[in-house]
Amino acid sequence: MRETTRVGDSYFLSLREGARLTPKGADQMALHFGGRTSTFRCESSANLQALRQLGGEGGFEDRLAQQVLAAEGPEGLASFYYYIGLLSQRCLLRRSLLADDRPLATLIPISSSFKYAPQELEPDREYRLSRFAFMRAEDSETTLESPLSHARVVLHDWRATALVHDLARACRPADASDPIPIPEDTAARLITLLLQAGMLTDETPSLRSWEFHDLLFHSRSRLGRHDLPIGGTYRFVDELPPPLALKPAASGDSIPLYRPDLEKLKREDPPFACVQDARRSIRDFAAKPITLRQVGEFLYRVGRVTEGFTSDVPTPGGSVVMDFARRPYPSGGAVYELELYLAVRACEGLETGLYHYEPRTHRLEPISGRTDDLDGLLSVASVSAGIAGEQLQVLIVITSRFQRVSWKYAATAYALTLKHVGVLYQTMYMVATAMQLAPCGLGCGDADLLARAIGTDYYEESSVGEFLLGSIGGSDEGSEGH
Amino acid sequence: MRETTRVGDSYFLSLREGARLTPKGADQMALHFGGRTSTFRCESSANLQALRQLGGEGGFEDRLAQQVLAAEGPEGLASFYYYIGLLSQRCLLRRSLLADDRPLATLIPISSSFKYAPQELEPDREYRLSRFAFMRAEDSETTLESPLSHARVVLHDWRATALVHDLARACRPADASDPIPIPEDTAARLITLLLQAGMLTDETPSLRSWEFHDLLFHSRSRLGRHDLPIGGTYRFVDELPPPLALKPAASGDSIPLYRPDLEKLKREDPPFACVQDARRSIRDFAAKPITLRQVGEFLYRVGRVTEGFTSDVPTPGGSVVMDFARRPYPSGGAVYELELYLAVRACEGLETGLYHYEPRTHRLEPISGRTDDLDGLLSVASVSAGIAGEQLQVLIVITSRFQRVSWKYAATAYALTLKHVGVLYQTMYMVATAMQLAPCGLGCGDADLLARAIGTDYYEESSVGEFLLGSIGGSDEGSEGH
Question: How far apart are the C-alpha atoms of B172 and B188, rounded to whole Å?
Fold first, then answer.
């Protein structure tokens, strides 16, 4: 211990909620968390006692360290810090800053990469909250997280949150708290904790062009710097019924579509390497539009249900009966959450309007004729593609029935959906190329507008991709297109 | 106006920063924002005066309304609310809550769908911050946003932020402020503003399985409910040089790869419809592993540079010279930000280890042999695929050189990258199927671990996708695989 540290000024250490340490025999401790138990050896009785206190009501780091030091000297103390490091690396150690015996803020590691290090504030340096740090309410508490950080901070006290507010502006430690009713030295200790947690990180060149929502998403939808459940956890299996494989067919009339002869295609299609080599984005559509028959063949080859089945799927806690509806492209876990809508401006044999593709019966379900919403969708697409609106023939809008994925997959649900959208784009590109049609994937669309146009709840089903399809016009030299 | 409203208790209205209203002739106003000007007719002199005040120092809504009502009666007042609605719909109207003449919080619409409505708090109802609402620092201010909301709230005063802290726990309006030094009626008015902004929204069934990072990302990477710049804005063109099309080749030895005869493949490949029909995820790899020659052909058909060129690209403010390197799959704006790495456990002719694929020279650059990091990558992949680690042959890890996309594209950069990953997955599936290899796309990986293993800055380049490749074993009945 450094001599400048006063006892009781250090962090109050405790185990994370749900974690337990129990003695096992004379010289071992068992660590229980998340249904798992791991055992480690501890031959030092002073450390056993310190660990028992940690696993019970907790204790100040310096006091625990002093007890161990008094009983077993520097060697015992080294072991103490080894155990503290071990618990921290396993994301089980909470470090709380107390003021007047009440917790102000608690630092909790959320990945094994979190490195705790003592820090000293420089009184004349200005500190500032990173633009990537964010506060939100979770389980009735205010938490502070950041995709730059391998830790989470729980802000127990409104004065702590108020201090974080003040750090939106760069300020010296002595100026941060004014006029929040918090003692200056307590404020300084809180700023130190925020610094240790990685919330006051400076901007580096590689962060310059990252946007908040992008970096948060990258950090949370992949492993490495969070402690969220991830992957096929089926966490809603006991709360919500499995979302259906297919949207119920609409009432009302629907339009049957042409079905190509698949066996003939398997004999007569160009070789795969030819299709791959010939594939390109084409934005130059012909004056004579695509036909309903071509649209039928395209949708059949891209999106029809190839196989429907029901399966008893194993889950972490048992199994669940789910229905499935495969399509002609791959989908993680065979969830197939994507739906296809056609915003038609010009197609021979099909009225201008908005349609839903029903993939089981291979039919189009009319939603509306020409409306302001349809014009809006086509207009956004023409801007996104950089071509005149009169050029458009068929805009295919891809939606996701989000719950089909998020009911099963934790943390990765939306990332999986966007990968599926990419899979579908490439499938559309290849099929359009094989059919000598003009394909062009788009970069963005309006999800609120689409939900309104098709009459869905934005959170249940809204758009995640857009693709233009038409008949091929003259030469297309879109030099930097897809 | 309702009689219960006291003058000065209403919101203080002003124009958003950067917006200006100027008179044009005797009966028109010109509205300037973001480099654009729109003109609207206003024949009422009382409204002209009110609008001038709005465009100047601003004013309390009730006072402005009373002035118009006194001068021109109910008809003038109706016009006043029409203009207020117009400015609000265009996201140009700020509504501020003042306490002691200083702004406490300001509500700013961020989409044309924002609907402002008077609200009354119910004294016995409990209010609570939505788990989707979040606060962060931006431009030295603390903002409160939510993917459920079409508005943003700026929290000017630390007491406002402290009150938001208290709303992490459901509480009645009278209990929310205690012990924050803020008068109870002011706290109630702030809670009303948060309610109007959509920050206290209740959870609906369709929100149940959404995670915060997913919904935030969906709302911000697509049009509809934000006012961020979006699409190919080239916003860093004057600050940062364009990121290079290709990673500089590594020094040291590299391994030349087999190049297939593309013309022969274009004659002899199976028809496209056959490949599409035969494609499936295969997790059952043969005991005899894939060969280096197969890996070479696979990478050549999936990822080589097919064309390199330099182009003078138009930007909103002029043009910029960029280099490009096309691959055999589509990429938005031809940015091609994805890199391929091979984590090899078993491949005939190639040592176990980690390699980078150099797509211009079609060579493998060795990074490391068998290390803990390599074992870690293979271990995460085997868990993700649900197969034993000894089964693995080649794990292909896809990274993104993020800046190549985010330098050009705003709001949609990471979404675009994930679509590209999906495009690449499907390209890999098809090529592997044509080559009679076993392909299997994975759902997740560890981005921090990969960055460490290849020695890159996580924010410059880390992993966004994983794919298994091997030789085909016995029958594979992965019933719900891709």
Answer: 10
Average confidence (pLDDT) over A64-71: 96
Q: A245 — contact with chain B (CB < 8 Å)?
A: no
Where does the pLDDT of residue A479 fall: very low under 50, low under 70, confident under 90, or very high at 90 and above?
very low
Q: CB distance from A201 to chain B under 8 Å?
A: no
In this structure, are residues B91 and B111 in contact, taking their beta carbons and an 8 Å threshold? yes
Instruction: Show Cβ contacts of residue B76 under 8 Å, excluding neighbours closer than 6 positions.
Output: B44, B46, B47, B68, B69
DSSP E strands: which ranges in A327-436? 338-344, 353-358, 363-368, 394-401, 409-410
Q: What residues contact A369, with CB distance under 8 A and at least 6 apart?
A: A351, A352, A353
Region for residue B417 given its phi and psi (left: phi exceeds 0; alpha: psi -120 to 50; beta: otherwise): alpha
The answer to whether A136 contacts B138, with C-beta atoms less than 8 Å apart, is no
- Judge whether B4 is closer than 8 Å to chain A, CB to CB: no
CB-CB under 8 Å, A265 with B273? yes
d(CA B96, CA A38): 55
Residues of A in contact with B210 (CB under 8 A): 402, 406, 459
A412 in contact with chain B, both atoms CB, cutoff 8 A = yes
Residues 40-69 of B with CB under 8 A from A: none
Other beta carbons less than 10 A from residue A212's beta carbon: 21
Farthest-apart Cα atoms in chain A, separation:
91
Closest CA–CA distance from residue B91 to any residue of chain A (Å): 16
CB-based contacts of B228: which residues, under 8 Å, 6+ apart? A211, B220, B410, B411
Task: Pick the closest to residue B311 from B408, B424, B411 (CA basis).
Answer: B408
Residues of B in Cβ contact (< 8 Å) with A140 = 168-170
Token code pair at residue A85: 């490091």
Cα B229 from Cα B406, distance rounded (Å): 12
Quick: pLDDT tens for B11-53.
999 999 999 998 888 888 899 998 889 898 988 999 999 999 9
Q: Cβ neighbours of residue B265 under 8 Å, at least 6 residues apart? A: A271, A273, B301
Polymer length in residues for chain A: 482
Q: What is the ipTM of this complex?
A: 0.96
User: What are the structure tokens assigned to B44, written together?
Assistant: 């009422």
Give me the phi and psi of A319, to 5 degrees please.
Answer: -155, 165
Which residues of chain A from 376 to 405 reach within 8 Å of chain B, CB to CB? 380, 384, 402-403
- A423 contacts B422? CB cut-off 8 A: yes
CA A360 centroid distance within chain:
30
In the beta sheet, which residues pair with residue A143?
A: A136, A154
In chain B, what are the helix, strand and coil shares in percent, each to the nearest 5? 35, 25, 40
Candidates B214, B297, B398, partner chain A, best to mutate (most A CBs within 10 A): B214
How high is the pLDDT of residue B474?
64
Cα B192 to Cα A61, A190, B241: the distances in Å are 44, 31, 47
- SS3 of A15, please? strand
Mutation choice for B interface testing from A222, A398, A416, A424 by most B CBs within 10 A: A222
- Find chain B residues with C-beta within 8 A of A275's C-beta: 272
Residue B193 φ/ψ, nearest 5 degrees:
-60, -40
